[in-house]
Amino acid sequence: MIQTDENTSTPLVGDGGRARWLMLVLYSLIAASNAFMFVWLASVSNLGVRHYNTSMRKIHGTAQAVYLGYILAVPFAMAQFQRLGLRWTIIIAGILNAAGAVLRVVDDLNFIIAGSFLVGVAISFFIGAPTWLSSSWFNDDERTTATSIAVLATQAGLALGFIIPPIFIHKENQTSMIPSLHYATAVVCIVIAILTAVLFRSEPRSLPPGPGIVQAVAQAASNCQLMWVTIIFGIVTGIYWTLLLVLCSIFQDSYTNKEIGYLGSLYCCGGLASMVATGIFFDQQASNPPYRAFIGISLMVSTVFLGVFTWVVQEKDSLMLAGFACTAIGVALPMVQPALLELAVEYSAPELSEEVSGTLLFLAAMAFGFFLPFLVEPPSIGAIVALTVAVGLCGLLVPLLSPDYKRTQQRQSNDSNVPRAGKEA
Fold first, then answer.
1. CATH 1.10.150.20 fits 18-414, yes or no
2. Residue 38 burial (CB < 10 Å; 0-12/13-18/19+)?
3. Does the model's pTM come out above 0.85?
4. Which end of the chain is more exposed for a tag (fewer CB within 10 A), N or C?
5. Domain segments of the chain as ranges
């Protein structure tokens, strides 16, 4: 039971414990199932080509339809955030996610693309919510951890998308299992949507009303620091997703589908560990978060590991080395996501709300994610080198970021005023 203030009956964020974690779990289930649908067909793309009698580019087009759905729907979704509130925003996301899964049940690539588009529309309602949810439900010393857990739910879904399909679909005579997996996914998404509609509560602490969408975009465009963060997040996250989508294409001539599934799961599980570690680290440093140093070092390490990955792709002579390279970039690239999400809030508060800043960052990631596969398909060493250089350039942009964190400064000011107010009282 959430405790409330005796005078206002307003629930106290962070007190009571259980409700806020339930909200986080419900959000995470939607995010994980959505990510699973985004990637699982790409994890067995060579067999999907045979089953649907189509090209590899069209199989990857199912993932690009997700990007497109998000990009087209996000202006409408952003306009509805303040009116709907967190509860209805997440419930609508769950319903759209389930509807997209049901469309994908039809064993026709056009229906799967249409369902994937709807899955992308669902993302526009929940992808910017991690910081919104953590700000509404969690205390300051738990906020980055909560944000990291919400973001890594997507990582968990991506990992399952590379673990589960190759178990059941790894030979040419097993492609009949593809429709069965679509059916099973639809059932899971429907159950999640029902649970969310029944159990998800209104947030105990409502965020102050934000500007309209046109005003929000104008404010964001005029915020140079937020734009730098958005560009870095978009490029790095877009590259991470693109490499994941083309992983099967990169290694299909060297390894079996089960082995590629193993590499993909290492790639995604590395992100799970690094995001949790990032969240815990920044919650421990809440009074003076070293965002710039952390992001800069992480991006330089990512560049080195991408160089190792490029060499492994060229050699393709050791599954163990390939596993190490996939794990390394899987750890390094997603590590910056929670830090960049929190940094965007630092630069945009209090003018822009958490859900708006988070949505802008993922809009950039979706835009890069949509276009990058056109540049790297079919995969080549030159394309991977270009992606490596792009991450390195992002690392060089970090010194341009300001060390003035508005939200942290405001929090410190509020903390310093509390004893003074008590003495005056």
1. no
2. buried
3. no
4. C
5. 18-414
